[in-house]
Amino acid sequence: MSAVFTPPPAMLHRDFRRLWVSILSSGLAMQMAAVAIGWQVYSIHHSAFDLGLIGLAEFAPVPLLALPAGQLADRLPRIAVVTVWGFADAMVMALLLYVTISGAHALWQFVALAALTGVLAAIGNPAGRSLVPELVPAELLTSAIALRSIAGQITTIGGPAVGGLLFALRPEAVYSVAIVLLVGSSVLLFPISRPEIVERLEPPPPKLDSLLGGIRFIRSSPVILGAITLDLFAVLFGGAVALLPLFAQSILHTGPFGLGVLRSAVAVGALIAAVRLARKPLGSHAGRTLLFVVGAFGASMIVFGLSRWFWLSALALAVSGFVDMISMNIRATAVALATPNELLGRVNAVEGVFIGASNELGAFESGAAAALLGAVPAVVAGGALTIALALVWPKVFPDLSHIDRLEDLKPVLLAAGAGEVLVVGGAGPAAAPAPAD
pTM for the complete prediction? Predict the structure, then answer.
């Protein structure tokens, strides 16, 4: 008799289940809308530059609002911030529905609403990313973050397909369904009680000092700084997603369907890794595993760059998605465990800028390098640089490579100067407080 299926332990927590379904619902809504918006924007002037404007409008508010958004996530109930975020996104979808009914002829309307969506995401994301560590115990955090990633990958794979189908039936249907999903995602959060906030060690610091608390903490924590910057440079140099249309047409000689398969391969690989991590979280040697998967990411990019066989290229992309998901899971878990709760929103806000910058700047770097060197040399060189980073990083951030079990990471108190206590991420009991200067 086959064993009875048992859900991952994190799913046994009622509040986390509600949050997971909420993430799935809101993610589907936004992915569906992205398909409709892209089609409508391109139809106005048939300009690729217009599509770039939408992406720029969504990203621009993130670095501008990161610090105040992090402060907001650490001062207000995070569950309330995320709930309001869902309702606000539903209002944006209602405005897009109105624009669609009116004919969708003006580009400025889509750019303005994209900017508004970016503002809401910049404000809501730090609180949203800080919720999971509040809802599950530390020993289940790796599994819970993997489950959060599963929801994201499901929406990435399924959302565009559902959105395209609804748009083909009737453009207004996409936004109508998105409104329902977003409102539902917020309603699901109503029964979640506000988790108790850990008492602060000192009275609130001066306003500017408090605003910069996330930056100061990351700079003072070798584990977090090393993990975030490694991810930044790996994606910046090693990513090749922006060049997939070029590889599909000019190197692999496939059509739009083949391009879709290549894009989906990354998400499928990431989904497989997330499911594995949710069922069986990482054990020991987490630091070395992080360096290994970053190196494997670079190697997969070299294989993709050199490949002339479609299915080998798809397999290389799937491997890149698989190892990148493991890297992301280790980074996110390390940040969550090594950061005190009262700083988590501000730290996640700064981390979000790093992640966004790596994706946006990585796409620009890929295009610029391909224009200068050629597409294949650019991708191969980027993969080689990523492998070099994985080899060099243990010497730059030795604390990162020495991490054993992620569950052992805990914030450690260090004296930072007269009358001030700084909380720095460290590896549990082994990291003793340093003496005051």
Answer: 0.75
